[in-house]
Design a protein that fits this description.
single chain; 172 residues; mainly beta; 47% strand
Length: 172
């Protein structure tokens, strides 16, 4: 009789353990905007501070950063873009950031599908300076945002820790 009760109890307990998956430390995230009928999408992983110093600490200055965590940050655009002076033909790209204490640069790279730490400068489409600002309070979880600012214009913004960086773009 005891075995008849014990076996179902073990099976139920085992199935409950499987159902409780852990959330990844840097969950997948996405931002998208449609401007002039064309869609621009960025897929990235969103890490959190978790008590750590991020810029100038975990992510050192004067180095390339993958603009997220895990796999490289992916940009897809259905339209040709002017990204603050950089011509970006429609297609798929990887986005990186050159971290400087005073002036970040957004890097658009032609290599796609790689892990985030794999960066080859010779595959850069180009780099553009980013506008820099500070939030009112520290931002715990990294966030990228694409937003429309006009009929054919938009903004790509990155926010994390004590930094907000953005770059304007035009849909061609």
């Amino acid at each position: 009789m005891m075995r008849l009760v014990l076996i179902p109890a073990i099976l139920v307990g085992a199935s409950c353990g499987v159902a409780q998956e852990r959330q990844p430390l840097s969950p997948p995230a996405q931002t998208s905007v449609t401007i002039s009928g064309k869609t621009i999408t960025i897929k990235y992983a969103a890490p959190s501070m978790r008590g750590r110093k991020i810029f100038g600490g975990l992510e050192p200055y004067n180095k390339v950063w993958r603009a997220g965590a895990n796999s490289a940050t992916a940009l897809h655009t259905d339209a040709d873009l002017d990204l603050n002076g950089l011509a970006v033909p429609k297609g798929d790209y990887t986005v990186f950031v050159w971290l400087d204490p005073n002036q970040w640069q957004l890097i658009v790279n032609k290599q796609t599908g790689q892990w985030g730490l794999e960066y080859h400068q010779d595959r850069d489409l180009g780099r553009v300076k980013m506008n820099m600002g500070k939030p009112a309070a520290p931002i715990e979880t990294y966030k990228m945002t694409l937003s429309a600012t006009g009929q054919n214009t938009g903004k790509l913004q990155l926010e994390w820790e004590n930094t907000i960086a953005w770059v304007p773009f035009t849909v061609k």
